[in-house]
## 1
Amino acid sequence: MLTPFHNRPELGTLYEPLVGKTMLELGGKQDGGRVYKPYFESFGFKHTSVDWNGEFGALVMDLRKPLNLGTFDMVTNIGTSEHVSEKDYAGQIACWRNILAAMHVGTVLICDTPKPGYWKGHGTWYPQMTFYSELARLNGLKVERLLENDWRPDKPGRPVISARLVMRESMPFVMPDRQHLFCST
């Protein structure tokens, strides 16, 4: 099966190594016509995706409301969280609370979000590099990888912040200070 990361190999490496057998994907993701869900299912993952529009096999769910889907071995946020709740910060808190609620000790969290200031009109809330470090520190996660790169090397100028974190300790959710999120409005 062809990889959905054909034009973004650095994103594909963020997933390596794959962990466990269950995955929660925020947003029904596809890239260049290749949907993520069947790709990960081909590796034996029980793959659940959630999105408000239900596209590409996603369950229709609002990330501002509790998901109550249990925990997963891998959780992914590839360009989704910046679109949650354009009107208020409370939506961001709810989204990130849902992300952490879907994790157990050993869960890997993969995030790839636009770098603040470069993706005009794409979303509202953009995590800065410090957001991921603070999210880890406050919530029992370990940062395995944290880097900035171009979204697509063949179309430079749209940098993203990529992170791979692992849940090391189960703790009550704490949202990093708002200063670690850039609001474009």
## 2
Amino acid sequence: MEKYKICPLCRKHNPPTVFECIGCEADLTSVMAVSESNEEKIMQNTVTSPKTETKKFRICDCGEKNPPSARKCLKCGEDISDVIPVPDTSSKTRFVFSSADGSYQFEIKDEKFTVGRECHMQEYLSSKMYVSRNHAEITLSEGRLFIRNLSRSNGTYVNNQKIDDEIHELHEGDEVAFGGFVLNGEMQSEAAYFHVRRI
């Protein structure tokens, strides 16, 4: 029974001795030669598993993200065989703290950091006297955002509820207040108020 290599990108049948797809020039060095009788079973175990194909890309000059096994850009046909596959960062969830007054925005990039008058966001918080020097700890983990109060004096509020020193998860649209709460619709001028946004 005749055997062939099935390209993981274009699904073209290739002779079993080739190292590159004759259709799209994808790398076939780790693709097993199969026969028609076991093609479906083998295809489930090829190099196109999500672990290898969805986490890295060869990015062409045209901006197209190509699978790491691609030799030519799937969009423009440019040779990308010398482009090193890089991790995909665009799919990562990104958050920002937007100040309630609309004058300041802070993109959360670090996995763990402290906010306060002498830490991250100090350019905005330094004039807010109800905010502690080390006020709260922010953690970004696997696309989820968490906060932990560090302030012993004025505390941290999420949606106008004071949080304890345990870790609390934040969601898009939550209001976070450092050093104060909202009373009768009024915000305290010496506290800092932010909305959590996804970008």
## 3
Amino acid sequence: MSDKPNGRIFKPRPVQTSTDRATGREWLNEPLVRVIDELHQPMYLFPRDCPGVLYWPTSTTTPEDCERWWGEQSRRVVARVERTWLDRLRTGILHGYEFLETDFMNLHDAGTWVSHVPVTPIRVETLRDLIGGIARQGVELRVMASLVSLKELSKTSLHVSGLRLRNARD
């Protein structure tokens, strides 16, 4: 997903901040085209720079964590965002790109696939209703004043993904 329409070609881009990689995986800091699989797509249905926390139970989630953070409702993911981003969620537009799977290598890491060479999408879809798109993905959107109170989520047995938290309110 991107907030900029680009139907032509995606070229490998360098990472903004290199990270320490396991031996033999240092190449992940090289310029790559990165895409996400459909299962993990809800993490990218938010406006550029929008901080958020997404979480869901796994096979190792404890009943206590599930009761406290998940509840009884049926949904795939809970997403929490700050109230200051709600207008941008209501008015934002994203463009989703579909690529040939054979053009990418699966990293087996949170749905990430990469390509070392430029790739061309086979389909482009414009999403004009981000909140509706989030709901259609089975995500319950919860709006709050600040994400700071969610720090303890990282100590639970749920899967937790923080997005762009550098932009979260203190």
